[in-house]
């Protein structure tokens, strides 16, 4: 391996490490109490409310990662695997799962915690895609 190849290998390792560090540092956690005004007639969290909370957590994560203007362009399939009852605490965890040139994806999971026990389980998952935009609202590179 010549000096130029070694330099590029080291540069790629440094860039990868910096991206991994940015992903770790941008992971976002939001806690909410599930009150009756956010539930449906089954006394579980409205699906639309869950989606709104997840999009907010994803937006915060994307913005913390890129430190740029980010807009949601799509969400993948949302999996509601457990109902979220009133009177519980939810934790939303957002983490960058893919990095493109002008876009990134953020996976958000919602965990249910019972208020008076240590029970905790995953209830909902979804992946959101964001695009970085400039002042003219056109796509720009996520990483400057």
Question: How would the blueprint of this fold be written?
Answer:
Elements: H1 3-26, E1 28-33, H2 47-66, E2 69-75, E3 79-80, E4 88-99, E5 103-114, E6 120-133
Antiparallel strand pairs: 1-4, 2-6, 3-6, 4-5, 5-6
Comma- or semicolon-separated keywords:
144 residues, alpha+beta, Thiol Ester Dehydrase, Chain A, 31% helix
The secondary-structure element order is HEHEEEEE
Class inferred from helices and paired strands: alpha+beta
Strand content: 35-45%
Number of helices: 2
Helix content: 25-40%
- What is the CATH topology classification name? Thiol Ester Dehydrase, Chain A
Count of the domains:
1
Cα Rg: 18 Å
Which regions are unreliable across 5 or more consecutive residues at pLDDT < 50?
A: none
Q: What is the CATH architecture term?
A: Roll
């Amino acid at each position: 391996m010549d000096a130029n190849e070694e330099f590029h290998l080291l540069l790629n390792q440094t860039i990868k490490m910096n991206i991994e560090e940015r992903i770790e540092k941008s992971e976002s956690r939001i806690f909410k109490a599930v009150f009756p005004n956010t539930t449906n007639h089954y006394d579980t969290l409205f699906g639309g409310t869950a989606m709104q909370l997840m999009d907010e957590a994803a937006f915060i994560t994307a913005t913390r990662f890129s430190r740029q203007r980010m807009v949601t362009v799509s969400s993948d399939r949302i999996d509601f695997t457990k109902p979220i009852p009133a009177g519980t605490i939810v934790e939303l965890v957002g983490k960058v799962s893919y990095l493109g040139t002008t876009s990134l994806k953020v996976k958000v999971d919602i965990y249910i915690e019972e208020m008076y026990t240590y029970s905790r389980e995953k209830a909902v998952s979804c992946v959101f895609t964001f695009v970085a935009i400039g002042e003219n609202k056109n796509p720009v590179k996520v990483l400057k």
